[in-house]
Design goal:
binds guanosine-5'-monophosphate; binds zinc ion; single chain
């Protein structure tokens, strides 16, 4: 895997076994381990072994594999932790809260009244939603 490794990356080091982690799953392309500062116990990170910085760099085949594994691993995490639900999330770029620059998906077991807060939405201004939808539609490939 070394040709895929970024020498300064903490998650590449975890994949290589150079930094210890509680491994949950591994195959040729993917690796999953427990987050060291969980929102709830069982909070798991699923990552590609190859160093992609974020989702925008990831190729189709890896993304397909990851989405299927998110479902299957998510089922296992939720079941093992007897959770009522599961958040699957990904932060892309520091401005979006990404701290570790190696693409990773969070699988977070959730419980009624576990105290974890979701983001709060805001209302669109008059006419704004139509304008915004047009701007995004203009970029859709
Ligand atoms: P981000 O904010 O980049 O989406 O999330 C990074 C996550 O990686 C955080 O939830 C953090 O707790 C976790 N993390 C950071 N360093 C380590 C580490 O050395 N080991 C493990 N297991 N998790 C880590
Ligand atoms: Zn990396």
């Amino acid at each position: 895997m070394d040709k895929f490794k970024n020498k300064d990356c903490i998650f590449c080091k975890i994949v290589a076994g150079e930094i210890p982690a509680e491994k949950i799953y591994e195959d040729d392309d993917l690796f999953a381990f427990l987050d060291i500062t969980p929102i709830n116990a069982g909070h798991t990170l699923l990552i590609p072994k190859k160093h992609y910085e974020n989702i925008f760099e990831m190729d189709d085949e890896i993304l397909k594999k990851i989405s299927i594994k998110l479902r299957d691993l998510g089922t296992s995490v939720k079941g093992a932790m007897k959770a009522g639900g599961l958040n699957i999330g990904m932060n892309n770029s520091p401005v979006a809260g990404q701290v570790v620059p190696h693409a990773h998906f969070h699988l977070i077991p959730r419980y009624l009244k576990d105290g974890h807060k979701h983001w709060e939405g805001r209302k669109y201004k008059e006419g704004e939603i139509t304008k915004v939808a047009g701007e995004i539609r203009g970029k859709v490939r």
